[in-house]
Amino acid sequence: DAGVIQSPRHEVTEMGQEVTLRCKPISGHDYLFWYRQTMMRGLELLIYFNNNVPIDDSGMPEDRFSAKMPNASFSTLKIQPSEPRDSAVYFCASSRTPGQGTRVYNEQFFGPGTRLTVL
Amino acid sequence: AQKITQTQPGMFVQEKEAVTLDCTYDTSDPSYGLFWYKQPSSGEMIFLIYQGSYDQQNATEGRYSLNFQKARKSANLVISASQLGDSAMYFCAVLLTGGGNKLTFGTGTQLKVEL
User: Fold this and answer.
1) Residue A95 contacts residue A108 (beta carbons within 8 Å)
2) CA A71 to chain centre
3) Which of A108, A109, A114, A116 to mutate to test the interface with B (most CBs of B within 10 A)?
4) How far is B104 from chain A (nearest CA, A)?
5) Does A45 reach chain B within 8 Å, measured CB to CB?
6) Which of B33, B91, B107 lies nearest to residue A105, judging by beta carbons?
């Protein structure tokens, strides 16, 4: 089975430009997450969706960041305008609601990440 | 807010030896899940093992096992028979069942396996 797919893998842009990161979750997964990883702040959850609906965007840094999930197999994270402090690795992850059992939530599977550099 | 503490920024272990990576968490919620992820130098995040707060037995997955001490709020990862490929950053994470499907990660432990 294909894992979580992210594109591009690397992005270098100049301050003020719009950046769009893309994610295809694992087929059948109903949760999708966007994370950001930096040396200073570690791994932070930005936003997550359930069945294509944004559930919690409290981690989105500011209005320059927006995320959409138009269908079950695609999501975007957009930064407009980008700033040097947005430089980070952005991960997309997905998970599936557990079936019957004791678990409420399943493990999340991560994509390879997009390394964003804003000059 | 819940807090995850990994006190060992770096660890060294000899090949074929066992190593324990520490993780403590701070939550008053009774229902939660604990996860460990591995991040090799290539950057991807790899899920290793899960422990639920109500699980009676410690979780095991191959060479990975979790030393879960609920009263102490610790969930240490034990890697047995270390291999060179185990060299990576290891992250502990907690998910509060009542808080939505949100993982909070620790700061990680860099493990280096030596010959």
Assistant:
1) yes
2) 15
3) A108
4) 8
5) yes
6) B33
What does the alpha-carbon distance between residue B83 and residue B94 come to, in Å, rounded to a whole number? 26
Nearest CA in chain A to B107: A42
Q: What distance in Å separates the CA atoms of residue A113 and residue A94, rounded to the nearest whole number?
A: 13
pLDDT at A1 over 80: no
Interchain CB distance below 8 Å, B103 and A45: yes
- Give the residue ranges of chain B where pLDDT is below 70: 1-2
* Tokens standing for residue B62: 């191959």
Amino acid at B58: N
Q: How far is CA A48 from CA A30, A58, A94, B84, B100, in A?
A: 10, 10, 9, 35, 10
Contact indicator for B77, B63 with CB cutoff of 8 Å:
no
Q: What is the distance between the alpha carbons of residues B43 and B35, in angstroms, rounded to a whole number? A: 18
Instruction: Return the residue matching tokens 């079950």.
Output: A72
Question: For B46-79, how does the pLDDT look when each residue is reduced to its tens digit (9 = 90+)?
Answer: 999 999 999 889 999 999 999 999 999 999 999 9
The separation between the first and the last C-alpha atoms of chain A, rounded to the nearest angstrom, is 37
Q: Which of B31, B24, B19 is nearest to B7 (CA)?
A: B24
B83 token code pair: 């291999």
Q: Looking up tokens 């949760």, which residue turns up?
A: A31
Are the beta carbons of B106 and B8 closer than 8 angstroms?
Answer: no
Q: Helix, strand, or coil here: B77?
A: strand
A5, A43, A50, A89, best to mutate vs chain B, most B CBs in 10 Å: A43
